[in-house]
Specification:
- The chain is of the alpha+beta class and about 270 residues long.
- It folds into two domains: about 15-150, Fructose-1,6-Bisphosphatase, Chain A, domain 1 (2-Layer Sandwich); about 165-270, D-Maltodextrin-Binding Protein, domain 2, CATH 3.40.190.80.
- The chain is built from seven helices and 16 strands.
- The chain has helices at about 15-35, 55-65, 100-105, 170-175, 195-200, 215-230, 260-270; strands at about 45, 50-55, 75, 90-100, 110-120, 120-130, 135-140, 145, 150, 165-170, 185-190, 205-210, 215, 230-235, 250, 255.
- The chain has a seven-stranded mixed beta sheet, sandwiched between helices.
- α1 packs antiparallel against α2 and α5 packs parallel to α6.
- The longest helix has 21 residues, at about 15-35.
- The radius of gyration is 17 Å and the shape is globular.
Amino acid sequence: MTSTHRAMGSGSGLREEDLNRIHRALQAAGEALRPFLAGPVAFRQKPGQEGPVTEADLAVDRVLRALLPQDGEGWLSEESQDDPARLDCRRVWVADPLDGTKEFVQGIPEWCISVGLLEDGIPVAGGIYAPSKDLLILGSRETGVFCNGARVGLTERKALAGATVLASRSEWQRGEWEAFVGGPFRLVPCGSVALKLALVAAGLADATWTLVPKCEWDVAGGAALVLAGGGSVLHADGTLPRWNQPSPCLPNLLAGREELLREVRQMWLGSK
């Protein structure tokens, strides 16, 4: 794994420790994942329409849970049984051990390990590690965002004209993005919503949005990165997401520069 945030120095001591903890956890999770990268990946389907799960998901979940939450801190993960005690915690770690498991199983390099930290219901720090892309993106509101150790941030684009917009690969394949085809921007299908959010935070794309509900573990880490980069994360109706909820489901999510998202929301309303 590439060295991470040696250039950081402006954040508080506590936040530096949070980012160091995220870095160490992502590094250990990457090592736990290594044995599963050599060949075809066995998987089973979760009940209903929840998608596949692999032994890699579970192995990474165990590592993250062992290294991230400390006494008095909550935990929410796609692969752990939810403990309502998190609702009473000021600090809550939210993880998706493998966001983009479908792509992971299919050998498409669009998946990542995602970690977010909530404080008082606000995403304040996060990180993603995408081994197949050699990308490690970390950030917090106090330090800004770093990609593989270099300081990065959102693009300067404030309008959709000429923008690069990342679309959900699954939503794209189901035809759910047809209303946005033909706009003055480039649409790029990509797996893993956490990865898409992180790419926006790192200035590797201009915006992304989801058309179907996502769980907090899907987006908390990426949302923290977008916010750390000075961007906005909101719902299509303009309201802010509420985090660490009893039912951790978000109806949709838009991410990018505030000015650009105003245009996105107008287009969204026009497509309905």
